[in-house]
Amino acid sequence: xxxxxxxxxxxxxxxxxxxxxxxxxxxxxxxxxxxxxxxxxxxxxxxxxxxxxxxxxxxxxxxxxxxxxxxxxxxxxxxxxxxxxxxxxxxxxxxxxxxxxx
Length: 102
Description:
Elements (H helix, E strand, L loop, with lengths): L15 H14 L4 H5 L7 E2 L17 E2 L2 H15 L19
Antiparallel strand pairs: 1-2
């Protein structure tokens, strides 16, 4: 598989570290079923809430975790390349969802 497939449409070059991360993520998700790619609904790059309101959970934590923009781009790239197994043209994710808009 060509490493050029891992480039996003606005990229000409990426660092070796980013390429290695994209390949590692790809290797983790490449065998997921078609529904993972076609029916993907949410990709949440941040979890946690600083408010810790009582109505959410009495065990709510103010711990936050988030992906940097670089990590988000690496994940999206890996998902795109892994979806080639099922889809050869755009959209590479979120297709076959007539009950919801993409």
